[in-house]
Amino acid sequence: MAWHALFFYFFAILACGFALAVVFAANVVRMAFYLILSLGATAGLFFLAGAEFVGSMQLMMYVGGTLVLLVFGVMLTAQGPWVSIRTSGGDWVLAALVGGSLLAVLVPTVLRIDAAAPQPTAAKEKVASETAVPVPAQPTATRIGLGLVGVPTADHSGYLLPFEAISIHLLVVLVGAAYLARAKRRAKPLAAEEDEL
Amino acid sequence: MTHFLIETLGFPPTLAGLVVALWACFLLLNLIAAGALFFIWLERKVAGRIQDRLGPTRVGGKFGWLQTLADGIKLIGKEDLMPKGADGLLFKLAPYISFCASLSAFIALPFASGWVGLEMNAAVFFVLAVLGLEVFGVILAGYSSASKWSLFGAMREAAQVVSYEVPLGLCAMIPVLIAGSMDLTKIGNLQAGWFTNWYVLHDPFTFITFWVYFTCATASVNRAPFDLAEAESELVAGFHTEYSGLRWSYFFMAEYGSMLLVSGLGAVLFFGGWNGPIPIASILGLTNSDSGWAYFAANLLGTLGFLTKALLGVTLMMWVRWTLPRLRIDQVITTCWKYCTPIAAVMFTGVIFWQALGIPTLGDLLPPRSSRTVDGKAVGRRPGEVREAWMSAVVSKPQRGAAEQKTADTSAVTENQSARDGQHDSTDTQPAVQSTSAAPSNK
């Protein structure tokens, strides 16, 4: 038995199971909690594949950033003690449409990868014996970084333009958020307001 | 250790892997648990001395050293309460989330060269990311308690931690920038030798950076003067108002674990990690010896040094806690966005210029000593030296046919790099040396 396969199934089942729990839960904060576990398990899959940087990024951005903000937003805006969401029929149809089309794109892609095809037993055993011993750390972040600053390598020609476009986009979003959140200037001086009161 | 089990004791590889993994888990878990016991005692003693008291004196004879254990037994015996309106599942799970996050981050923290749960290429980033998850336990605890005090505590915590991740990450990036690696073991080994090689003394910018890092680390582990989430004088006990017994103590184990973690991370990033102020191990010749016991002794000395540095960091946090008053929430956020973040950004730029212009560091200015030389060459960065050999190697790869001379240059640089790495890694254990020697071929 190879640990690699065992852990892969463990994390995969966790990720899928909690993803379903997100869909079927009614309480927003519980949904967020299940989403944390699901995304955490996905990060575990990344770590298992040796992509530590991507896994850590997943934890930092989605779990540590986005979901904290989500729960924070719920705590700020909730009217009652527990916020629950009831999905209407139209939402189910829309969600099924979007989710189904994504699935339709993903499934053929997954099946096209060679690893999904059955391997001869000898090759499998070889892989198992190799993965039992810890593999040395590979610099995975280096390739991502080089790709983003536009250094071409053997398998891609650099992603400088998309990277810059996203950077500018995020900068605009940040400026917009700061503009919306800034302290509003009073239309009238403070003294006049107090007189009215 | 895996190789030892497989080759000497004849374990099957699967079992050997399991044994090693469980052993690492056992050590880390006990480090946090025993560390928490010790730190709570230490906190009481430090607080007592600062407030002109004695602290605990009775339990366990001298210095009251059994006080925490007595408290632990008391906590186990307490009733496990849950408020009527609470969300049961989240309320019960929240302490474990905090504790697990704190424990998981220790996986990537090296205690000596090669003594690390899992050697990661992006270890710095991993530790920061997992540390950020600890806040979730606090937020869920606050939300699920069905108590206004808890909810206020959780909201403050969320705002505070999301803000402080930014300057903390910036500060942690600066040693990464100097080392050219996010691998904590490599960062530690690059600071081998005398204390002048520590990154905190690298240049004035890194010196200031350390203090910004310390401030942000204190804030991100939710310690006074940034302990807004549990402000006793305003919120009863903040997010853990409704907790009692063992669940409550898990939050404290997580807090003390995180304190040790950020102090340890600071020790590796800025204070050379296991490379002491005086390189005792290499003076004694332990690091150059081929014997396994010499490695073990050198690493043991290194671990002692590392733990001492981490302990000093934790003590400093306690000192700060019992000295400064708690800030208001707006002051906390102001400190983050108006002071820490801009200062960290300026220091970041400063270090970039320092590195790019090749200004000599303190370690370079000293004349090469006997302990700083390996095979007659001085250890340390020469001014203006090209460190990013991998970069030129990658760039030159597609145009190999076009410029032969460039390839020759690159190979020379790579050779230089590998030779220099070899010197730095003289304190290394076997696996790290292997990975270093394998590195140029990957590039």
Explain how this protein is built.
The complex is a heterodimer of chains A (197) and B (443). Chain A has 197 residues and is an all-alpha fold. Among the domains of chain A are: 79 residues, Four Helix Bundle (Hemerythrin (Met), subunit A), CATH 1.20.120.1200; 34 residues. In chain A, α1 runs antiparallel to α2. The relative contact order of chain A is 0.07. Chain B is built from 17 helices and two strands. In chain B, 47% of the residues are buried. Chains A and B meet through α2, α3 and α6 of A and α1, α2, α4, α5 and α6 of B.
How would you describe this structure in keywords?
heterodimer; A: 197 residues; mainly alpha; Four Helix Bundle (Hemerythrin (Met), subunit A); B: 443 residues; 2 domains; two-stranded antiparallel ribbon; 17 helices; 2 strands
How are the SSEs ordered, and which strands pair?
The complex is a heterodimer of chains A (197) and B (443).
Chain A lengths: L2 H22 L3 H21 L3 H26 L11 H24 L8 H12 L7 H9 L11 H22 L8 H7 L1
Helix pairs in contact in A: 1-2, 2-3
Chain B lengths: L1 H6 L5 H38 L16 H11 L10 H18 L17 H22 L3 H32 L4 H7 L13 H17 L11 H4 L9 H26 L9 H4 L8 H30 L7 H29 L4 H4 L7 E2 L2 E2 L10 H8 L7 H21 L5 H13 L1
Antiparallel strand pairs in B: 1-2
